[in-house]
Automatic annotation (TrEMBL):
Residues 1-23 form the signal peptide. Pfam families: Fasciclin (PF02469). Keywords: Signal. The keyword Signal applies. InterPro entries: Adhesion/Biosynth-related, FAS1_dom_sf, FAS1_domain. SMART domains: FAS1 (SM00554). Residues 76-210 form the FAS1 domain. This is Fasciclin domain-containing protein. The keyword Metal-binding does not apply.
Length: 220
């Protein structure tokens, strides 16, 4: 079965077609991959003001179905402010600020964030997680986080099986949707709390850190 190609994941790219394709085409036209230097420009200077690594949690403090239930109107918050409301997303919010991309995600526009919970980050070796939080490894952290951001607003209902996102040279993020339960996974992480609307996009809570797969063997 032919897999549909989605727009690459990078918040500062210019999108020439809608995320799910231009009219008359079953496969989107991929944007050129943004280089790390361009991403760093979006994120700010690579030098951080402090050399102290932030404290990171790998423990969830509330059940998935309890997340954001205490918020009357999530649309009054931008995506980063919304992420900060849930204690389950404290590590993601902290890393976004450490990487310098938080300001971009508080700006006007429409974005999609697939936000890993604190516990999701526990699948990553603790030493690697702590390394990513250090200022000198900011470029590597940006590469990890940009896999979780789309420059368009995408509801979970628009995800379908056999889609993929180009995430670099011969690297893709695969999307799978169960035909019966409609449970969706992206890059190996399952969406546990979908479609939390913010003033500038939508946030999906996921239970893992998104990873890519090589394009070898994928039908184009």
């Amino acid at each position: 079965m032919k897999k549909r190609l989605l727009t690459p994941v990078i918040a500062v790219a210019i999108v020439s077609c809608s995320l799910f394709g231009c009219a008359g085409s079953s496969e989107t036209t991929a944007m050129e991959s943004t280089t790390m230097s361009e991403t760093q420009t979006m994120a700010g200077d690579t030098e951080m003001e402090t050399t102290t690594s932030p404290a990171l949690s790998v423990t969830n403090e509330e059940e998935y179905d309890e997340m954001f239930t205490n918020v009357d109107d999530t649309k009054q918050y931008d995506l980063i402010s919304l992420a900060k409301i849930s204690p389950n997303l404290s590590t993601f919010a902290t890393l976004a600020e450490t990487a310098g991309i938080a300001n971009a995600l508080t700006a006007d526009g429409k974005y999609t964030i697939f936000a890993p919970t604190n516990q999701a980050f526990s699948s990553m070796p603790r030493a690697k997680l702590e390394r990513l939080s250090k200022p000198e490894n900011k470029a590597e952290l940006i590469k990890v986080l940009q896999l979780h951001i789309l420059p368009n607003e995408v509801a979970s209902t628009r995800l379908s099986d056999n889609q993929r996102i180009k995430a670099g040279e011969d690297q893709y993020i695969t999307i799978n949707v169960d035909s019966n339960t409609r449970a969706a996974t992206i890059g190996g992480a399952t969406i546990m709390r979908p479609d939390i609307e913010a003033s500038n996009g939508v946030l999906h809570v996921i239970n893992g850190v998104i990873t890519t797969t090589p394009g070898t063997g994928i039908t184009r």
